[in-house]
Fold:
Amino acid sequence: TTKAGKPIAFATLEDFGGQGELVCFATVLDRIQNYLQVDEIVIAKGRPEVRGGGLKIIVQDVLPMWKVREQMVKSIVVRVDAESLAVEAINQLRELCDANRGSCKLYFDIASGDLAQPQRVHARKFVVEPTPDLMRGLTRLVGPGNVVVEGEG
Structure:
């Protein structure tokens, strides 16, 4: 706690080049506390301060990785084989996309014996949010390795 009795949190960052300290004051800590869980990866944004040869980062915000994914992913590409995709799977894809509406474009790379290479189709009707539920559902429907996220830079 601070001298005023308010909560404060510290964390040590270390890499091959040295170490530094994260400092999170009460005003920020109240807002981000739910994101700070054991074994959960977060990205901390803050203001660096160098004092006495040591680096401190005064935390201004923390984003959990699922939120980073939602903000950074610009499109999702789903690879499907036209011959083996059942009508029921198409209906489940539609329901999954309806339940996860957002701002991320959705494309299908459709493979067929009639095509020399897969044909990419933009599913304009479906703009999705790349939530963990959506990603798990897509992978369950089309198989591991057939769902690809495309992001910034």
